[in-house]
Amino acid sequence: MTLVTPRVRRCARSGIRRGVYETPAKGAKIDLPMKQQPYILVVNGTKVRRPVFVLGAPHSGVNLIAQALRRTPGFHLGSITPGVLNAVYAIARRPSLAEENASGTATLLRDAFAEAWQLTPLTCPRCPTKRVPARKAAEPCRHAREVTRFGDASPDLLYCAKALSTAFEDAVFVQIIRDGRDVTADMLSDDHSLTWFRPSLANLDHELPNPFFGIETESERADYQGLSTAAKCAMRWRGAVRLSAQLHGVLDPRQLMTLRYEDLAGGEVEAAERLREFTGTRVSAKDLVRSKSPDIGSWRSRLTTEQCSDVKSVARVELSRLGYL
Q1: Got the DSSP string for 175-244?
Q2: Would you kindly state where each structural domain of the chain is located, as residue ranges?
């Protein structure tokens, strides 16, 4: 068996340092490690420490928390890029991939986020939009040196949160919960959310349970195509809040913080203080103030009686457990 020792190599083009391996000198004495060496990730010259991931069910308020973090000095909160999206959806649609190959999945996620977190003249939101010479297009921009913390935010991250905690052992997670009836009402008016229910995309043969669609039993899978769209939205919300509950049993309490969407309206100062204490970033309460109505309880005027009945039939237990019924 050939033993290897880790070293780190910098990619001159991207500024990312990745773990690679080289064969030791012949006859060298090597102590066998008890566990896998930690992975050190450096992006644009900055070591990635305690990345922050914001997650929750669709339309639960992830964007609101992301907005506040994104405005924090020194914090670079990416928006889902195609590379990250492909990795996240691969795990979301087939959770067993992460369980069968935890190391490979961790590497996939680290590499995807390493690329997404690069700040170049073409990717930096603060750089002026103008033509850049090709030789400078992939170099770190002038704002890159100001970044000290990294993170990402998307409802879809919830489906790979466990894999993310393996890929980034010091990561912290902020999850947000919202009334499933309001979530359903928003999903019904969102073309992107409804796209997932098309027969061509809702392939249910790969995995059971399927947290992405909220399907857990053979009976639910058999009945799924006959459900109303409102019921399918409620199943996605139900699957998301069940995953959120499971995270409390997987992650250290110091890694997981839960906010309730309804508590943010009028409670911006308290929420900002909690976020500052938990993430170590200077979150401002004013950045948590919504520019429009939070639509708390708007489901009463947006859902029909039949749609309300469908939501309750699917998610009554979760709505009750969370205090919404």
Answers
A1: EEE--HHHHHHHHHT-HHHHHTTSTTT---SS-SSBTTTTB-SHHHHHHGGGS-HHHHHHHHHHHHHHHH
A2: 43-178+252-294, 195-250+300-325
pLDDT for 37? 52
User: How many Cα atoms sit within 13 Å of 312 on the Cβ side?
Assistant: 11
- How confident is residue 199, by pLDDT bands cut at 50, 70 and 90? confident
Q: What is the pTM (predicted TM-score) of this model?
A: 0.82
CA distance linking residue 104 with residue 156, whole number of Å: 20
Tokens matching residue 7: 């070293």
In terms of Cα–Cα distance, which of 142, 303, 165, 134 is closest to 234? 303
Q: 43-178+252-294 — its CATH code? A: 3.40.50
Chain position carrying tokens 């969102």:
190
User: pLDDT tens digits for 60-75?
Assistant: 999 999 999 989 988 9
Other CB atoms within 10 A of residue 183 CB:
29
